[in-house]
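During the reporting period the student researcher (J.K.) took over the structure-prediction task from the postdoctoral fellow and processed the backlog of single-chain submissions. One of the processed entries is reproduced below for the supervisory committee.
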Amino acid sequence: MSSYAPFVVFALVVAIAPGPDTLLTLRSAVSGGRRRGLWTMAGITIAGSLQGVLAASGLGAIITRAEPVFETIRWAGVVYLAHLGVQALRAARRTQRAGWAAADELVRTSPMRALGQGFLCNITNPKVLAFNLAVLPQFLAAGAELSTLLLYALTLSAVGGLVLLVVVLGADAARRALASRRARRGIDAAAGVAFLGFAAVLAAEA
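J.K. obtained the following structure tokens:
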């Protein structure tokens, strides 16, 4: 446990680095407000915690070594990130309507839908599981108890959730400044390109 404080600092540095989860949370909060952003954040945090539990219990290592399973997860992540990218670009093209997207899309974005989007964004990213498996042994001695492994793994997810909470609150506060159609279209377009970029990088990995 002497390495716990350094691990928390490390988890904070990792969580601050931008990625698909941060981008999705940011777009959800700016486009749909604090409530939608919080539900998206909750879905990401739940999925991250699940991946942490898998890593700590040893099931994660089995998944990553079972190439067909790992590749299925990877390509599911590619498809979902590409879907998010296309969705954002389509929203950016809707110049004839005010707001981030057409009214019918906003109606469909219920709390459970936002939760599901966040969950899928994280759970289909095999890098999260692989990262847990690579990092935890660096801070824990061989033969560490399961309870200790779970503490570290869930701490990683909790710190990530706190950073996303800051993102949600900041994005919600900035909504008024980003109220113009041009600003919203620009952010949607940037988000779409970024999501497609994340998908391309994930697809190119051997």
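The committee noted the following: The radius of gyration is 18 Å.
J.K. will present the remaining backlog at the next meeting.
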